Structures are given as C-alpha cells and as structure tokens.
Sequence to fold (452 residues):
Amino acid sequence: MDVNDVKVLLVDDEADVLDFMKYNLEKEGFWVYTARDGMEAIQLAKKINPHIIILDLMMPKLDGIETCRELRTMQEFKNTIIAFLTARDEDYSQVAGFEVGADDYITKPIKPRVFISRIRALLRRMESHSGVAKLNVGGIEIDRERYLVIKDGQEITLPRKEFELLNLLASKPGRVFKRDEILSKVWGNDTIVGDRTIDVHIRKLREKIGEDFFKTIKGIGYKFDA
Amino acid sequence: MDVNDVKVLLVDDEADVLDFMKYNLEKEGFWVYTARDGMEAIQLAKKINPHIIILDLMMPKLDGIETCRELRTMQEFKNTIIAFLTARDEDYSQVAGFEVGADDYITKPIKPRVFISRIRALLRRMESHSGVAKLNVGGIEIDRERYLVIKDGQEITLPRKEFELLNLLASKPGRVFKRDEILSKVWGNDTIVGDRTIDVHIRKLREKIGEDFFKTIKGIGYKFDA
DNA sequence: ACTCGGTTTAACCATTGCTTAACACACTCT
DNA sequence: AGAGTGTGTTAAGCAATGGTTAAACCGAGT
Fold:
C-alpha cells in the first residue's frame, strides 16, 4: 500500500507531542488525524476509518487501555493496527496493553527516525496480515488464503489463473484494467499468450461468479463491479 | 502536478491571517485566491475551480462547516481538497468537520514551515488519490480510471474514441483544439481518416453529454466549455 | 504411461463502434 | 443571389474486438 493512502490516527492530550508526531508522519507522506482524548478518538475513528491508531496511555476522559478495549469491540476495528504510546518507565502497562488487543507499544520520548521506522513496521505487518486475508466486494468474499470465493454462503473453488484474475480485478472494484495490464499482472511480463486467453478466463468467471460482475470496456479491458 | 498549476482558495475573515497565508503560499509558487466569508468563497470557487480550499471555522454569514457542507453537495467539488483552519483549543470541531467531508484541519497559530508542508501533504494525497484519475469540469466528472462519465449522478459509458476525444477537450476547458491537433492526439500521428470523422464523434458526444458543452470554432476546431 | 484438472489455442460467431459517403445546412465573399 | 467553404446529420458497410465452444496441450500425481 502506498504511504499516501495510509491514515494514521494519533491520540494524545499533549498538543506538542501530537504536533511533533504529526509533523514527522506527514513529512513521510502519511495521512494524519489527531484526537485529544479517547472519546474523541473513537468518534473520529468511526468517521475516517484509520489504518493505524496510536494511543497515549494517560489521557483524560478515557485512557488508552479503555479506548483500545472499546475499539476492539467494534467490528470495523478488528483489523486496525493499534499501538500504545508510553513513558519509558511505565512498562508494566505493556502487559495490560497487549491484553486488550494492542499490536505494539512505542516509548516516549519519541525520536523521529525510530518512530517512523516503527510505524512502517506496523504497516508491513498490517499488509501481510489483512492483505493476504479476505476481501469483501459486492456480496462476494474472496479468501486469498484458501483460494476460494464465497457467494451467497456457497463456497466456490477456482483454479489458480481464474482466481488470480478475479483477485486482481476485485482488488480495485470499478477500476478498469487494461488487457496488457492484466496480462503482465496475472500471466507475467514475459509470457506470451494468445488474444483469446483472457476472454476465456473471464468467461469462466462470469459462469461461476455471475455475469453482471464483470464488465467489458471494449478496446480497453475489463472491470469488476457490483 | 506542478505547484505552479495548483490553485488554493483561502477563506478567512481576518485580513492579516489571510495575507500571511497568501504570502507564504505564493512564495512557494502556489496560485492563491482569497475570500472573506463562506458566501464569497462558494462564488469564487465556482469561477476558479480551486484544487485546495482552506476554510476558517469562524466566519460571518456562513461558517466553515456550513460552507464545506454546501461545497460538498456540488458535483464539481466532490474531489476538491477541503481543510479547516481552527484555533488549537477548539479542536472538538474536528469531528464535525470530518462529518461534512473535510480532508484535514490546520491549527492556528500558523507556522510557515508547518503550514507549507501540510499543504504539500494535501497535494500529494490529492494526486495519489484522485488527481490523475478524475477530472471535474462544469458539473461533469470524467473518471479515467473507471472509463466513465458522470453527469447529474448518471453514469454514462462511452466508446473508446468518444471517451478519448472528450478527455482531450475537457483536459483544458475553454481552450480550442485545432482539428489536426485532435487528429494527432486521439487518432495518432500516422492514421489518416476522413474529414467528417471528428464531426461524427463530436455529434455523438453532444448527444450523450449535452449540446452546449462542445463549441465549434469554424475553420479552427472545437472547444469544451461549461 | 495414463488420467485428470487446468490452461491455452484455434476457429468461428456476434456485436460494437468506427468510418465513410452523401447530402443538408449555415455562413461568407463576390 | 449564387458560388464556395466548412460543418452537421444520417445511415450503411466494414473492420476491430470480444464471446463461445471444442479440442489440443501440459504437467502433476497415480
């Protein structure tokens, strides 16, 4: 995932800490939102749906632990990366932190280099985690681990190429993939296959998943849409 | 996108804040417009079609939140970056701000360095997100990624050549494209087609998008205009 | 070596959309 | 007014593109 698409929600009651983190993350191209306490954080998180949430432990109204526990009860934040911000010496809190579902903790004082690389590490983890996992689009669930598709509760198993083609198209619903783009991403840059190969696979997919999902853009390529 | 092509609309009722921001942005090469209240901002925005709008929260006539809500209802500002300007302690407004479709908020007092980098971050996001993909002109949205045109909320799909022609003309609204320029850009430098080919495609576009958008300049070519 | 999915090819068909040609119209210049 | 130039309109033919099907191919596992 491109850094420019990654939303980070920073939560701390100290304005200067917030600014410092925000400045450093934005310099790297992250998309940064901030909140001053747990309540505000939850409100904001519901609106913007961040990829990563950094929670200070000590906060008024709702502390980090409680905020995290709260967030984890909500379906939409099951796969969100949550990290705690903690003063070096209060590391007893780690235990409690992981208990409520934190993914990492970061110690204050924050050093820019370390902080950024930590965030990047979290990001990588997120990608390998939910990236491989499942993808839900238009009533269809694509399970990348098990190479199968679930539609109306029915498990549909797909051969490799068909699955990869579906996976590519469904990764950006609505977006048109050019034929040569499809070829290079599914078949590889060097392999040479006939013109009709893509069509045949599209046909198989339409047969198995449904006609309507795959739209042809003549002269350009195909798109997946609900 | 080059900074010199980026139009920023600043909206604040305090003249000195306005000047300060304007000075700093212009020094960086941005193209800056200003308005003193929400009404004026909307009027001006419709004329200049800015890429980024910075709205102060507290304004006479129409406050930032309302202005933003208003702007977001208009098709042409669906993809415009809108950020709020807010005093540090009134940041509860974030929640309301994001609710009406804001992309970011910037806290006063403004520090030039931070301000500029924030604007650049907004710009990066705009580009990586929808910058190249979508194009909004005169109430019409051209989505290059999905290969479709949206007018009055209606999705219109166009055949390849028609889409490319529209795309060319709409890329610089108001500017006249000579017939041979159109030929070389849409049909390619070498292909030779008859005189009436362009006209027919223009006709199709007028049929589907609307008569008024395509103006004929006799003896020269065509232009797209709202 | 045979079988069986899965993948690719080839041949043919169907459809779309591009281009043309013919004519109508509008405008300008003499 | 009439010729001349450039554009608008229409329908029809044609070429490009994608859809369909069956059969050939390929490779892993038996």
In short: Residues 162 and 200 of chain A are 10 Å apart (CA to CA). The first strand of chain A starts at residue 7 and ends at 11. Chain A is about 40% helix and 25% strand. The helical segments of chain A are 15-27, 38-48, 64-73, 93-99, 112-131, 160-171, 179-187, 196-209.
